[in-house]
Amino acid sequence: MSVKENPASHPNFWKRAQVASEERLHVRLESLVVLGGLCITMTILSPYFLSVNNILNILLATSTIGVLAIAATFVIGSGGLDLSLGSVMGLSGVVGAYMAVNMGLPAVFGVIGCIGAGAIAGFVNGQLITRAFVPAFIVTLGMLGLARGLGLVISDGRVIYGLPSGLLYLGQGRPLGIPMPVIIFLTTALVTHYILAFTRFGRYTLAIGDNENSTRTAGINVERHRLILYTLSGGLAGLAGMLFMARINSGDPTAGISYELTAITAAIIGGTNLFGGRGSILGSMIGALIMGVLQNGLNLLAVQSYYQQMAIGAVLIFAVFIDQYQMRKEARV
Amino acid sequence: MVYTKKVNRFIIALGAAATVSLAGPVYAEGEYAVLMKTLANPFWGAMGQGVEEGAQAAGVEYFVQAVESDQAAESQLNVCNTMLQREPSVLITAAINSTNLLPCLKTAQDAGVAVIDLDGNLDPTILDAEGIKIAFRIGSDNVAAGAQGAEYMVEQLGADATGPVLIIEGLSGNVTGQKRVSGFQDRLAALAPGLEVVASLPGDWDRGKAATIMNDILVRHPDLVGVFAANDGMALGAVESAFAAGKGGDIIIIGVDGNSDAVKSIEDGRLTASVAQLPYLVGSLAVENAQRVLAGETVSSEISVPTMVLTQEVLAAGSEPMLEFVK
After folding, report:
1. Closest residue to B82, CB basis, from A249, A250, A299
2. What's the DSSP call for residue A7?
3. Which among B67, B101, B129 has CB closest to A305?
């Protein structure tokens, strides 16, 4: 974790704003500026962009990736990696739908099924990483295949359609006109932001990512903490699976293919360090929104999806470039 | 803001209900929104081209969107929602599966947008359960396509032929593949009871997997006389295995789709035949019928576009009028 400089020593407005943004919001000012710039550009280019409906639409489209990006931020912030996010999300939706539809259990079991299946997958990841000492990359890569396959087995390769109304409400309900997935997503983001930025748990997480050995020397049970992190990551993937399942009224075994990469992209655009030690949930949310706004805007402008992928790739590299540039500049001073 | 919106919607709904009771559904005005799966697949590419050229010919405003792969279910839903922000009059969709677009189709219906199911990806029972009424569905009749394959095989082998036949199915659980296979199986049993289906295995639309299946079956049934694969990719995989095993040309191998790779292979005398769908025609007919719906004419709720058997002779003669739609 980098040492913050005293804002008073920088009379420069930009620098002061940068420090304030970092300290108050834990968000890099650059990513806020990029998001704002994108929104302004899209507003100018498309008459359909700036409306309450479309903003809610963007948040709704970002909800699943956003929740996965939260999971990615925790794990990457601690110097780990979870490649199984997308597959676990698919598996969770299938398990939840299976319990609610095929087994006819009440809606609440659908929720428990989704989050529980995700958490169990994450727990298995965590156990293998901390006890069997298999690298996180390998374990979660293996889980990527395991979870996807299991989802296909349980669902017999088909979507499980027709959820009970209680579950549907979580995906399609609109209290006060705001879609439920958006409410769940934003609430989760705020709570987890608080945890990562202001609690001991969050500090330990980033400390492990910064320097595992000194954290261990300081008397922190790194293995147990890691185990909790991977379980949390799986549970969040389960929550994302539930949101998507409830939105489309079915458990889709192919949901979330390659979402882990999109989630990691969001986290990194938002300022999470790929090698751990730095990251914030609000930052990752800005990252996810940058991608969401970009996609939405390009769709409104009827730009082909192939170009959209190029745009997102370019934004990712640009974001990390700015990050590295800043750090080098600071190191030189 | 939200409150007034709700009231507005209510009034619109009331108005819509009143008009509906008088004379059928009234659709909004605006451009044609076309949502494909992915254009990277030649089949969907040809269908997209058909839609675009059909729209250009008809002089209607349109915009096309597709997603990165034919597995990107959520991404397609998000794109669909975004497209509705442009307030189109028609939404022509090739949904990735039978459920991923449901919330968007519902919104479209509420906004008075005519929804058209391209290639029959939506499940009528699910649509009924969700209370979504689409204007029409258009696509090839997959059961008939399978049956055409069986007819051609029997034509080649004779009605009193005997011998083992292999079926390579699509992705397990995929409706399209199931329809083609059941169409083939039923017609084959009716026309030539002597031809015995010794195995029906899922090739998951995968060329390599189909080649492996073909290899394995040839070991057990070296006297295999016919193969029906639920798409061309898998048929081409089976062809390669047959040639590698030195049985090239001896086995009747039939695929479905009529894509450009298959056409090449048939011309080279490797693949025996392909039951060609005409995706280009499906696309252009979709636009044509959408216009009629908007004009208040009645169109059939199920429009099926014919399929044709492509063989070396048909391709060489080039006189079949529908050949111009094979892309």
Report:
1. A299
2. G
3. B67
- Cβ contacts (< 8 Å) between B65 and chain A: which residues? 299, 302, 304-305
| H-run or E-run covering A79 | none
Question: In chain A, what are the domains?
Answer: 49-332 (1.10.3470)
Q: B266, exposed or middle or buried, with CB in 10 Å at 0-12, 13-18, 19+? A: buried
| Average pLDDT of span A224-244 | 96
ipTM score for this prediction: 0.77
Q: Is A162 on the interface with B (CB under 8 A)?
A: yes
Q: Residue length, chain A? A: 333
> Of A64-78, A260-274, B168-182, B207-221, which gets the smallest average pLDDT?
B168-182
Among residues of chain A, what percentage have pLDDT more than 70?
A: 96
Q: Which residues of B touch A177 (CB under 8 A)?
A: 2, 5-6
Of the candidates B202, B264, B266, which has an alpha carbon nearest to the alpha carbon of residue B234? B202
Whether B129 sits inside 8 A of A162 (CB atoms) is yes
Please give the Cα distance from A234 to A214 (Å, whole number): 27
Q: Let me know: does B227 contact B221? Beta carbons within 8 Å.
A: no
Nearest-CB residue to B73 (from A172, A252, A299): A252
DSSP class per residue in B26-95: -PPPSPEEEE-S-TTSHHHHHHHHHHHHHHHHHT--EEEE--SSTT-HHHHHHHHHHHHTT--SEEEE--
Distance from C-alpha of A155 to C-alpha of B122, rounded to nearest angstrom: 19
Q: What is the pLDDT of residues B137-162, one digit of tens each?
A: 998 889 999 999 999 999 999 988 89
CA distance B236 to B208: 9
Supply the pLDDT for residue B23: 45
Domain segments of chain B as ranges: 2-134, 142-277+311-325
Collapsed DSSP state (helix, strand, coil) of residue A96: helix
Average pLDDT over residues A204-223: 93
Residue-wise pLDDT tens digits, B75-130 = 899 999 999 999 999 999 999 888 889 999 999 999 999 999 998 888 888 899 88
Residues 54-83 of A with CB under 8 A from B: 54, 57, 60-61, 64
What is the pLDDT at residue A234?
Answer: 97
Give the whole-angstrom CA distance, residue A129 versus residue A80.
Answer: 10
Contact assignment for A299 to B1 by CB distance below 8 Å: no
Identical topology for domains B2-134 and B142-277+311-325: yes
Question: Whole-angstrom distance between the N-terminal and C-terminal Cα of chain B?
Answer: 50
Q: B304 CA to chain A: closest CA distance, Å?
A: 25
Is B31 in CB contact (< 8 Å) with chain A?
Answer: no
Determine, for residues B74 and A244 on separate chains, whether the beta-carbon distance falls below 8 Å. yes
pLDDT at A157 over 60: yes
Is any Cβ of chain A less than 8 angstroms from the Cβ of B312? no
Distance from the Cα of residue A108 to its chain's centroid: 24
Task: Give the pLDDT of residue B21.
Answer: 39
User: In terms of Cα–Cα distance, which of B88, B90, B66 is closest to B78?
Assistant: B66
Query: In which band, very low, low, confident or very high, does the pLDDT at A11 lie, cut at 50, 70 and 90?
Result: low
In the predicted structure, residue B15 carries a pLDDT above the cut 60: no
CATH class of the B142-277+311-325 domain in this structure: alpha beta
Lowest mean pLDDT among A241-245, B12-16, B276-280: B12-16
CATH topology of domain B2-134: Rossmann fold (3.40.50)
C-alpha to C-alpha distance for A230 and A131, rounded to whole angstroms: 13
